[in-house]
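can u do me a favor
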C-alpha cells in the first residue's frame, strides 16, 4: 500500500480507532475472562474487520444479514438489499431474471475503489464511482491562506449540473471525475 495514499491514511486511522475501542472495553473483557479467555487487541481487530466487512447500515445502526454477504458487488447492478428495521427483515430485489446457478450481483453502493478496498477488501477496474483525493497543505499562517482557499472554491467547486463533484475538508479535496457512460473526464 502506498504510504502517502488516502487509503493508507484511512487504514492507519481505522486501526488506531479499533485500538482505542479495545482499550475502552478491555476492563469489561477482563471481568469476563472465563468467557473470553485471553482476548487480545489482535483478536478484537480481527472480529471488528469480520463484522465490518459484512455488516449493512440501517437507520438503527449496523446489522448482519444472513447470506447477504454471499452476494458479490457489481457497480452497475440495480439489484439491491432493502431492509425494514421495524420489521427486522431484509430482502434482495433482483434487477432482472436469473437462471438457476447464475450468480446474483448487487450494488453495495456507489463507492470509490478506496472505499471498496477499505470496507470490503477489493477494487473493481473502470469503477465509474472512483475518486481521487488530493491532499493540500495550506498552512494557516500563510499570508495568502484565505485567498488560496477562495480560489480553490471558485475554480474547483463545480456547478450543481456538472458531472464532476468536489468535497472539501480542512486540507483535503476529493474530486470525482466521471461521466454516465463511464468515460473519464480530463
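np, heres the sequence
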Amino acid at each position: 500500500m502506498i504510504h502517502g495514499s488516502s487509503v493508507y491514511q484511512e487504514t492507519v486511522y481505522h486501526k488506531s480507532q479499533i485500538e482505542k475501542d479495545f482499550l475502552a472495553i478491555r476492563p469489561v473483557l477482563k471481568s469476563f475472562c472465563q468467557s473470553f479467555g485471553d482476548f487480545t487487541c489482535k483478536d478484537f481487530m480481527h472480529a471488528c474487520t469480520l463484522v465490518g466487512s459484512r455488516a449493512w447500515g440501517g437507520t438503527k445502526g449496523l446489522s448482519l444479514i444472513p447470506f447477504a454477504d454471499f452476494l458479490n458487488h457489481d457497480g452497475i447492478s440495480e439489484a439491491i438489499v432493502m431492509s425494514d428495521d421495524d420489521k427486522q427483515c431484509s430482502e434482495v430485489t433482483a434487477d432482472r431474471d436469473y437462471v438457476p446457478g447464475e450468480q446474483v450481483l448487487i450494488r453495495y453502493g456507489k463507492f470509490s475503489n478506496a472505499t471498496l478496498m477499505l470496507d470490503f477488501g477489493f477494487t473493481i477496474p473502470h469503477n465509474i464511482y472512483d475518486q481521487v483525493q488530493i491532499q493540500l497543505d495550506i498552512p494557516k499562517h500563510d499570508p495568502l491562506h484565505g485567498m488560496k482557499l477562495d480560489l480553490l472554491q471558485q475554480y474547483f467547486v463545480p456547478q450543481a449540473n456538472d458531472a464532476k463533484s468536489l468535497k472539501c475538508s480542512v486540507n483535503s479535496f476529493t474530486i470525482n471525475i466521471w461521466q454516465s457512460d463511464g468515460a473519464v473526464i480530463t
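The CA atoms of residues 136 and 171 lie 5 Å apart. hope that helps!!
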